[in-house]
Amino acid sequence: MNATSPAGALLLCRADPGAVRPVAHLLRERMLLAPAGDGWSVLVPEGKPWQGGGAGDTGAGGAADVEPVDRVVAGWATALAVGSAWSVLALWWDGDRAGYTLATGFRRPVGYVWLADGTPAGEDEAMRTFADRLGLDPVLDVQALEELTRPDADADARIRLRGLVAVLTRIGLVLPPGLDPDTPGERLYAMADERPESEALVWTGWRRAVRAELDAVESGRLGPWVRGPRARALAAAQLAAGLPLVLLGFRRGGGWALAGALLLAHGALGLAYDRLRAAEEAAGTP
Question: Which range, of 26-30, 92-96, 167-171, averages the lowest pLDDT?
């Protein structure tokens, strides 16, 4: 990794593509989705929010003209995790730094940062929290993670990220060939696009996206939470939780506003879906 390396990112979801697809659609971002091992999926964003460089780029007026990659993917990871039952790990890098953000439900996201030369710039406790939330071995895996927080003149940020991914292979993660940390974002997207198992996520509108998500869930074991009394109670709870998160996001940033907006959308459209399906059944349509 060097000072001229373009920014890039990967979103690792601890769920199969079928579960990730409908939730990722709601981000309304151009991404590629592919399986990434046993119980894992990877989302490869096109990277428009940070195209042109990393967090330090500035325009002619001296103000930043692109969003820092770490801030963008932290927001996406938070939004995906709040709207689902699985963890989302965002790996990111630019010319100056690299790191990760782990989002799990409504818990406070945890992250770590390395400078480009591999110098640790995070809190050691973050690694232990990271291991605990992903169910890693509290001895062997934690020891391997703590090695990544110690000075090492031979390990730059790219090697640190690869070390992190190596630990995750013990719980099933297998990145598709070519999707390596520190690859420039555009090249990363092109490599993923060449994989036969990759699929493009194309925004088709709120109604179709939410309908696809709820249809998928309704056909599974969580069906009672999509329609009926439980579904209506869940939708009401999402509406109640979404508004405070939106207000928190306006004050603090970090993806909470997006997460709150998704909860509000889930709640409102969940109620609408319940009524729509009831009306369809009454009319005798599938």
Answer: 26-30
- Domain spans in the chain, listed from the N-terminal domain onward: 8-200, 205-283
Mean of all residue pLDDT scores within the chain: 80
From 15-24, 68-77, 100-109, 178-187, the region with the lowest mean pLDDT: 178-187
- Sheet (strand 110-115) strand order: 110-115, 97-103, 88-93, 8-13, 41-45, 31-35, 199-201
What sign for the dihedral angle of Cα 36, 41, 46, 51? negative
Q: How many Cα atoms are found within 13 Å in the side-chain-facing hemisphere of 236?
A: 6
Bridge partners of 87?
none
Q: In sequence order, what E strands does 73-136 have?
A: 88-93, 97-103, 110-115
Can you read off the two tokens belonging to residue 201? 């996520």
User: CA-to-CA distance for 60 and 277, rounded, in angstroms?
Assistant: 53
Cβ proximity of 43 and 26 under 8 Å = no
The Cα 144–Cα 121 span in angstroms is 17
